[in-house]
Every structure is written in C-alpha cells, then in structure tokens.
Amino acid sequence: MNSESIAVVGAGTMGAGIAQVGVEAGFRVNLIDVKEEFVSRGIQSIRGFLEKKVAKGKMTSEQCASALDRLTGHVDVKSGVRDVVMVVEAVFENIDLKHEMFKTLDECCPAEVILASNTSTLSISKIAQAAKQHPERVIGTHYFSPVPLMRLVEVVRGEATTDAIAEQTIALVRKLGKTPIVIKDVPGFVVNRLLCLLYNEAASMVEQGIATPADIDAAVKLGCNWPMGVTEIMDMAGVDVVLLALKAMYEMTGEERYKPTKLLSEMVEQKKLGKKTGEGFYSYAAK
Question: Which of 1, 150, 190, 233 has the most crowded Cβ, counting Cβ within 10 A?
C-alpha cells in the first residue's frame, strides 16, 4: 500500500474534482469509471483546469505536467485500487449503486484501505452494510462543488467506523488541502440539511410568484453577503441533483419541509437542469 496514492471511483464533475486536488497535493491518483470515454473526459477536464491555472500564473508548466503525470485512468476497479491508501467513491447518488460499489471495493481492497463515500445525503451506516468483511473502514468524505475551490469536507462517521479510520481520514483530507469537520451520520449531514430547505423555499417562492429567481438571488447576495444566489447555486449544481437530494431527505426524515416543490419536478421533466442543459432558473444559451 502506497501512502501517497489514492483512487477515485467516478470520473464525473465531483470525481474529477477530487482527483484534481489529489494530484495537485502530490498524490498519485487512479481515476476509475466504467467506460474509457468517461475516464478520458474526466482527465481532459482536469487537464483543462490545470492549464487555465498555468495561463493565470497560478501554476508553472512544469508543475502542471508533474500533476498530470501522477494521474492514471482505469476502467477496471481491481487494478485501479491496487496499492492505494484510500478509495473515494463518487458515483451517482443511488443507494443500490453505492452498495454494489462498496461490495466490490470491500472484496478488492486490503483491510487497511479506507473506503470513503462522497455521498451528500445517504447514510454512511447503510452504505457500509455492503462492506460485509470490513464495515469499520467505511466513512463519508463529502466534498463540495467546485471541489478545487471549496475548502470544506464533511467527514461522516458511520456506526461501525473506527477512531483509527476517522483519524487517518482527517489527516488525508488535510493533506489534500481541505478543512474537515467531523459530524454524525444524520440525513443531509450539516450543509445539505440546511441548503435543501433553502432550495425548496426558493423554488416555492418562484412557483408562487412571490419573487423572481433574480430577486431571490439579489436578496441573499446583498442582504446576507453570499457570493452566489440560491437559484444560481441550483443551476450550477443541477436542478436534477437538487431534486434527488430533496427526495432523499424527504424519504429519510419523513419531514414535510423537505418534500420537493412541484416546480423542481416540472423543471427536471422539461430538462431545465441548469447550466449543463443551457436553461434552468436562468437561460445560458447565449453565454
């Protein structure tokens, strides 16, 4: 096991972002996904971000090349997790998919390898149930988007997580240049437990005609000194991602305040998912 090597499963926005901070921090990173095209897209995304840093003078060409040399793509999980100290799972937010992945990881990885989930809402204890051999090494490491810029990582202990695994995870998160906070395994953890309520209320105000997205965003930016507005954040994260998070929170808590407002479901049905589809609460077609 190499203490300077980690694996990231899932080469999408979050997985690529986690892999990027890993190589920038000096780790060797294996980026894993089910198809070569997904892996290539993730690596190209990382390359693009690093090259922008070079253009802005925030990184030298040599540092960029060195970081990319530490990045390797894989489509086979078993080879991708070989000789790593930690595996960070960043696949789609679906408990069945995560169970399948953690079952595989538990079978592939030696007992001392940390198995971390980047889930934003799902229970770490429930995810760990799939790791029947060693559930004690499963922990949550919830990064925030865009990962290279956001400093926080919510470190979430499941019922079986040991003190040693928690301490090692905190140390690794700090080596990645992030600030960890350790919290209990509760639905939504801290940030999403708060944000889901804001997302739902903002969408409800738009739906009821109380305020426009622009007015809501101006209110929190000028009145609360937020750098971004609530509907702007939803468009950046993806309205579909927001809807899934709210549904998960509602199912897990049974609290009506988390029941998704009708507007969010309608927007997802209409493919108004935000920046990634060119339209959400705002239009990005001309941008």
Answer: 233
